[in-house]
Structure formats: structure tokens, C-alpha cells
Amino acid sequence: MSTRIEERVRLALDEDVASYDAALLSRLNRSRQQALDQGLAGRRRAMHSPWLGWATATALLLAVVLSPWPPASGPAPAPTMDTAAAGEDLELLLAADEIEVIEDLEFYAWLQQQSLDG
Fold first, then answer.
1. How far is the CA of 91 from the CAs of 87, 94, 102, in angstroms?
2. What's the rounded Cα separation, in Å, for the pair 62 and 14?
3. What is the rounded average pLDDT of the residues 44-67?
4. How many angstroms separate the first and last alpha carbons of the chain?
5. What confidence tens digit (pLDDT) does each residue in 98-108 have?
6. How far apart are CA 106 and CA 112, in angstroms?
7. What distance lies between CA 67 and its chain's CA centroid?
8. Does the pTM exceed 0.85?
9. Which pLDDT tens digit goes with each residue over 36-47?
10. Which residues have a Cβ under 8 Å from the Cβ of 47 and sit 6 or more positions away?
11. Which of 104, 76, 81 is nearest to 92 (CA)?
């Protein structure tokens, strides 16, 4: 839909420009070039402004100073657990000569449950 409208506008503008004489086209071109030159000159002046450098340096300094720093205490401690029960379980699991215990863990869990129930 918009492409048809754009095409119609482009055709109307092209027809209008075709009716201009050479003197008017030359004046339009000179005015365009003069406006472009003035715009570039103003942009160059703004880029060489010393205030721009000071403002950039200040912004970077503030960003570094105000940025959050990680705590100096190091990594967070690991969560603690009941070491007595864990130590007993770990001893059972790590004992190389007690492989049968590891193979029968379900039986030992059932046995422990029976002792807790009665």
C-alpha cells in the first residue's frame, strides 16, 4: 500500500522538478552546497571543543568512582551441613573394603527406618 503512495509522490515530484529551468536548478544546487558546508563546519567546531574532552573525562571518572566494587572478603563461604551424620555416611561410602555395604544401601536404609519406628 505505502509503495504505491511513495511511487505516486515520487512521480509528482519528478514532474515538478522537470519543469524547473536551469537557472533555478543552479540556485537550488548552490544553496544546498552552502547549507551542507555550514553544517559540516559547525560540526567540526563542536568536535574540537575543549569542553567536550573535559565532559567525557569527568563522565568516565564518575563511572569508575561510583561503580559498585565486589566485596574484598573473597568468595562466599560454602553452606554448612550436619558434619557428624555426613561424616558417618561418607566413611561408609569411602571405605574400600566395605563394597557390600554400598551394594546393600537400600537394606541398611530399611534397617535404620525399622530401628527408628520401633
1. 6, 5, 11
2. 54
3. 76
4. 84
5. 666 566 777 77
6. 10
7. 16
8. no
9. 888 776 666 556
10. none
11. 104
